[in-house]
Amino acid sequence: MYQAFGASTAEAGTLLSVFQLVGIPAALVLTYRWHFQRLLPLILLGYLVGLTCLLWRGWGHWLSAIILGFTCSLVFTLALNLIATSSRQVTVVAQRSAIAQSCGYLLAAVGPLLLGQLNHIFASWQPGLLLIGGLMILTVSIGYALVTTTHQQ
Predict the structure, then answer these.
(1) Which of 35, 45, 48, 79 has the smallest number of CB atoms closer than 10 Å to its CB?
(2) What string of DSSP letters covers the chain?
C-alpha cells in the first residue's frame, strides 16, 4: 500500500519495520491498568488517524506506520487480555481462546489475499481501505460489547 501511495520500495520496507517495532510497547500500555472502556475510543482514533495519514506522502507515511503499528498491536494485546479475563473457569477461557484464535488467525491469513484481490479488481486500494475501516469499527464495537458484558458479570 505504501508503494501505491508513493513510497519507494526501500521506504515501504522500512515503514513495515517501523510498523512492527512500534507495536512492541503496546503491551506495556495495558500494564498501567487502563480501563478497557478508555482504550477502545483510543484504538478507534488510532485506526482512523493512521489510515488518514496513510494517504499523505512523506511524514504521513511515517505517522501512519507508527500510529497503526501501535494501534494494531494494542488491539491484539487487548483481545488476548479480554479472553484471559473473560471467565474465572479455566476450561471456559481455554474454549474461548481456541475459538477466538482459530477464527482470528484464519481471518489474518485470508485478509491479505482478499485485500490484494480487491486491489486487482478495482485497480485501487480504496475499497480495501473502506473494508479495513468497516472492520475497525466492527472490532471496536464488539470490544465495547465484550467489555460491558464482562464487567457486568
Answers:
(1) 35
(2) -TTTTT--HHHHHHHHHHHHHHTTTHHHHHHT---HHHHHHHHHHHHHHHHHHHTSSTHHHHHHHHHHHHHHHHHHHHHHHHHHTS-S-HHHHHHHHHHHHHHHHHHHHHHHHHHHHHHHHHSSSHHHHHHHHHHHHHHHHHHHHHHHHHHH-
